Amino acid sequence: MFYYVLKYVLLGPVLRLLFRPRIEGLEHIPADGAAIVAGNHLSFSDHFLMPAIIRRRITFLAKAEYFTGPGVKGRLTASFFRGVGQIPVDRSGKEAGKAAIREGLGVLGKGELLGIYPEGTRSHDGRLYKGKVGVAVMAIRGQVPVVPCAMVGTFEIQPPGQKIPNIRRVTIRFGEPLDFSRYEGLENEKAAVRAVTDEIMYAILGLSGQEYVDRYAAEVKAEEAQQAPPKRFPRLRR
Hints:
Elements: H1 2-10, H2 12-19, E1 22-24, E2 35-39, H3 46-53, E3 58-63, H4 71-83, E4 87-89, H5 96-109, E5 113-116, E6 128-129, H6 134-142, E7 146-152, H7 154-157, E8 171-174, H8 190-208, E9 212-213, H9 217-227
Parallel strand pairs: 1-8, 2-5, 2-7, 3-4, 3-5, 6-9
Antiparallel strand pairs: 7-8
């Protein structure tokens, strides 16, 4: 109930008014039945803008940190994400990927839409990074279509570290559903899941027009963090 109140009464109309999203290819979202919507991830705002314009309910696998924050703000954030039906996924440890796949397949098994960002994290520089293979495993095992999606302009409205978004128009594009039924039974084959993932990322790239980096975003972020000069704090005068 809370999901639809936010979508149609509280949040959705405000987002449409402020960001006036151009919507392209919405007809590619199946009217019913299970499907995966796989998109690029440029901004925290993506979590709200895409669901606001899709007619059907869509469930995202959200990082567990959104549900475990301290204090009043943390509790409010957790309540919000639970209220809109998002599923917390722990991204640390060896079992994290398996847990995410299990949760995602549970959503698809109910005939619902599953939203996923194959890059695994937000892009820190606006480029599109190599996709993780979990999306391919779910698509093959669940035998569901994958609808590629591109958020265009959301990096500019809310780049990393910026809490209040800039008000400007964005574009949301959906491509034709991708059918991977030819890979049935091959979800445990590394070459197959890599090929499916790359095909999904190529479709997203064609919609977004981003620069592509054939590396995982998390690895690049970690490297750049190590290379960054240490922060210097001014000495206190005695």
